[in-house]
Amino acid sequence: MKLQKQSSRKKSDLNYDKYTKWTIVVPQDRIKQLGWTEGMELDESIDKNYLIIKPLDKSKLNNEKEDSNYEQFKKSIKNLLERYPIRGLSWTQIRDKLNYPQVVPNNIWVRRLQKEIGLIRIKKDKETLWRLENDTIYTIGYEGIKIEDFVKRLKSANIQQLIDLREIALSRKNGFSKTILSDKLDKAGINYRHYSQLGSPKTIRHQLHTDWNYEKFFKAYKEIVKGKGIQQRIEDVEKNAKSKKTVLLCFEKDYKTCHRRIIAEELKKRGWKVSHL
């Protein structure tokens, strides 16, 4: 067995090395012993100081091709669904927009999308809609705003669900007590939930109204948030917010003076983005 050097240029040519090839001459008996045939595709790799040559594993090539196709599929689906974050799209709509020939999607790929890009599929009427999990939770205060304008603001932001963070969902402000508020939101197509456990307890609220010491108030509420029951409720907020664009409600217009700020900080620690309307 010999290693030979071949070139289509003369050694005096400056581009000699560029056009040089190295050839390994393998004895005929070795070729027969290996069962190799002319034109067979070979694969090579280096292991320390050894060159390893073996027949090309076509199944590996097929897997690499499938992985490449899947990555392109994932990218296309993600980019498309990001343009329809609220309603989502059915597979038929996705197929038509991306010019896919498949009548039904590859179930293995769908399961991978669920893990890798947060794909969720929601049955609505007779359709199954594809959407990406929400990664943003919003907050809002109703101080200084009329109920009609409040609902319009939620609609313009495409809010689908409101979670009330008040311990007691009553208000002197017209339209913001629990029963009336939930009714108006329902008519606007917005889901209402009341998580009283996430409200600031009466004791620390009253103390704040006595000394107006916000630093002391927030410190006390942070300790309350550490409780197992409160942590479980925050997990419920996350669960609900994944499939619906969600806003957290309390009274104060400025979130910096409201206990919802602490809930927002907790959600950020868990990987959520938080935006204040």
Characterise the protein shown here.
The chain is α/β, with parallel strands linked by helices and 277 residues long. The chain has three domains: 2-56, Pemi-like Protein 1, Chain: D (Ribbon); 59-132, Orthogonal Bundle (Arc Repressor Mutant, subunit A), CATH 1.10.10; 136-276, Tetrapyrrole methylase, N-terminal domain (Cobalt-precorrin-4 Transmethylase, domain 1, 3-Layer(aba) Sandwich). It is 42% helix and 22% strand. The protein has ten helices and twelve strands. The strands form four sheets. Strands 10-9-11-8-12 form a five-stranded parallel beta sheet, sandwiched between helices. A three-stranded antiparallel beta sheet has the order 5-7-6. Helix 7 runs antiparallel to helix 8 (214-225).
Blueprint (SSEs and pairs):
Layout: E1 2-7, E2 20-25, H1 28-34, E3 42-47, E4 50-55, H2 58-81, E5 89-90, H3 91-98, H4 107-116, E6 119-124, E7 127-132, E8 136-141, H5 147-156, E9 161-164, H6 178-187, E10 191-194, H7 202-211, H8 214-225, H9 228-243, E11 246-250, H10 260-269, E12 273-276
Parallel strand pairs: 8-11, 8-12, 9-10, 9-11
Antiparallel strand pairs: 1-2, 3-4, 5-7, 6-7
Helix pairs in contact: 7-8
